[in-house]
Amino acid sequence: MRSKLFRWLLSASLVGGTMLGSASADPKVRDHRGNGPGKRGGISVNGGVTVNVGGPRSAPPTPRREKIGRRNGHVWVAGSWEWNNGRWDWQAGRWEKQRNNKRWRERRWEQRGDQWVKVEGDWIDVDIRPTAAPPAPRDERIGKRRGHVWVRGNWDWRNGEWDWVPGHWERERSGKRWREPRWEQQGGAWVLVNGDWMDVQAYPTAAPPAPQSETVASRSGHLWVKGRWDWRNGDWAWVPGHWERQRTSMQWQEGRWEQSNGRWNWVEGQWVAVATVTPPVQQPQVVVQYPNAAPPALQVESAPPRAGHVWIRGRWDWRQGKWEWIAGHWERERSNARWNDGRWEQNNGRWVWIEGSWGTQASAPPPVAQPPRPPVVVAPPPVSLPPGAVTQAPPPPQAETAGTRSGFVWIRGRWGWSGDKQYSWIPGHWERARSGKTWAEGRWETRQAGNTTYWIYVEGGWR
Predict the structure, then answer these.
(1) Across-strand partners of 176?
(2) How far apart, in Å, do the first and last CA atoms of the chain sit?
(3) Which of 1, 21, 115, 193 has fewest C-beta within 10 Å?
(4) d(CA 21, CA 215)
(5) Which of 364, 345, 357 is nearest to 310 (CA)?
């Protein structure tokens, strides 16, 4: 036991002598004592030899940029430079769990005299209530999600500063409506009133808004059921229209909102049988449907001239108990024949359609020589416009954004003259490119007939 103690004392004295000798031999070595990281009282142990190490005398480098995300319930402690063994080493940042009513104050280096000293980061007390109004809400772009409600994002007061909480989807709750959170000023401070689900009125007590405008084309064999307002979770929600397949001898009766006992109730639409009349004669008995009122006014159709063809005007037809428009079409001309348009005629309280037909065109008799007569001044005949002529100038084209599509050509949209005697916009579309062909855009051209100026649409085509 004594021999071991003696050997230990001898080794310690030799080490101490070596250090004293080294310090006295080199007068340039300073004794920098401090409380730097990784040291005890400014003394560092290295390889069993005690060496005096001083603090840094120059500022730390610029902090490194760290890519961090978001971690609920945690605070990011930024990385910093540490002075270890006479050089700067980077210490990466880390997550710290949040503490109630506390805010993290970052560590920092401060210059004191000719040295730089690190001040450790710590948690400091903060006021749990903001004294100023929250910033303006951030803009959130959301779509629609059936059966869900969007809970908008809001500002939250966390650790003495404003923190944005993004919005999210919540599943709808029957008979409930989401009330958004809000900040209210109470006693000189701002207090958050949390959002919650609240009970809503099961039925509306005020009339629904005006119906939204819907633009639909025609679809053979189908009927368009118009959109409507529906009462959902205490608010009006628009339900778009849809197509229904037509039913034989049936007519669609639109739904409607009706007021009764201080509340509004929705009466669903339904298919109802069309009234039929049995003719007095002919056996077996046949159910005949016919209109008992005159057809609507003819729709305006735009049909530019077509060599060697005759335009057969569109007409109204009585189908399934209602008037339906049949568009016009081209017929090839027939030699020495003229087309006689069909017509609706009233007969015994009912309207009957007389089909159009080709009639023989009489040859003009040879001219007979007449003695010259004095000129007679007559009024000019009324101006007759060609089919498809419009006396109202089309609006400027609408702007359309179309990218590139390999192997296709973009056909720009245009204004068309609808049956409602007004212009309606026809959106553009893609056409597959044709080898050796170039698409020539259609255009509205202005023309003159007497003192009348009118417009004719010239269809586009492949050239």
Answers:
(1) 199
(2) 114
(3) 1
(4) 100
(5) 357
